[in-house]
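During the first year of the project, the team set up a workflow for recording each protein of interest as an amino acid sequence followed immediately by a discrete structure-token representation. This format lets reviewers and collaborators read both layers of information side by side without switching files. As required by the reporting guidelines, we include two representative entries from the current panel. The first entry is reproduced here exactly as it appears in our internal archive.
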Amino acid sequence: MKLIIGEQQFEYTGQPTAEDVIERINENLAKGLYFSHFVADGKEIYDEHEEFLERKLGEIEELHVIIKTEKEFMNDVLLSAEEYLKRAIPEVRVLADEFNRVPTGDTWDRFELLVGGAGWLNDMLQVVSNSEERPTNWKTFHELTSSLQAEVSKLGKAVEKKKNGEIATILKKGFFPIFEQLEKKFGETIDSEFVRKNLN
């Protein structure tokens, strides 16, 4: 198997383990560079990297490790978060309406996806706040992170108590305005300090 990390290439004559590959990647990441994703025999892999390696490593002929500078990585984080919010905002409205009526199994499934997405978004906001390449308005992101965490906590309590009306209110008056503010701030930040890709 050939392992390519940035400009470096490594040939394995025997079958490496997932741990061997991950260790080699970590050893070769210089300060200020971040692991982005894999390209395994032409297929891009963006998540569950370790699990992917454990399942597929024996089949891979060439594993290209995509690394980015902190600025490039931060740019990708902001673009991903903005894209997530564009999809999530309409769903928050729909879910709030459905919880005001009688939520179905499908409503609960979509609600779980939203909560998972909010967790991911919170993690991304932490990355933004802690980065050396953080945007100039990072304090705004930090404040919105705190607000989002408070709403997630309230939401958890409402779910525990099975109060559908309260869930609807938190979605409509808590999540919705925070998500709208975040989408606006991400957009402004990308347009003023970062780069939008693939503009046609």
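The second entry, processed by the same pipeline in the following quarter, appears below.
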Amino acid sequence: MLETVLRQGVLGEDDIGEESPRNLKLPSKRPSIVCENCLYSLEKDRRVRAFHIMDPKGILEMILVFLEERGNGEAIPPSFDNFKEDTERILPHLGTWKGHSRTTRTGVYGATISEANTTAVLEFDKDGQLVQDITSTSGATNITTNVHWTGTMSENLVTFDGGFQLTLLPGGIYMGYPSDVAKNVQESTAFHVEFCWLESPGKRQRLIRTYDVEGFAVSSTYFIESKV
């Protein structure tokens, strides 16, 4: 299904050739992937909703982020108060994070739930490359897996080897996605998108959605982590 969508979508941001209103960026009318993630605050009565929107060719076209607070009669809406320079947005995420994950697989893939203890390390090496190591130990089988990535950073964009990218946003948020979903489909490999919210300096939440090559959601993994 996804391969068909990717092959047919060739016109880009406006699928019928119509011009968008000036100074207004509109998503494709036939996107290949639209993924919504939502994380609720651990400290206040608010939430962040984030959207990954892939164009018909499988390239990230747009990121949308909404910071929302439950109505309390105040006229001033919540806002992202951390407008650091692009190159500084990585700093709160550096270091070692330990926590717990819970993965829920969809009914098509068995409707199972699994939990694990996790350790994520993100740091720059002596050559200025960004290095990420994520270790996960299953609570049921006690099996440990490790994922090691190296990457480079340019302004607010991190690009890891293999084509996975992170866009660093204000407010302790980053969004991760494959640079080219069509390549994953051609190689018959699954792919995932990630949403991270670091609401306070020592605690963060992450949500990862995994898709198969047909574009069907396979699983959702929720992480809650503390900095050590």
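For the second entry, the following points were noted during internal review. Confidence is low (pLDDT under 50) at residues 1-18. The first helix runs from residue 2 to 8. Both points are flagged for discussion at the upcoming steering committee meeting.
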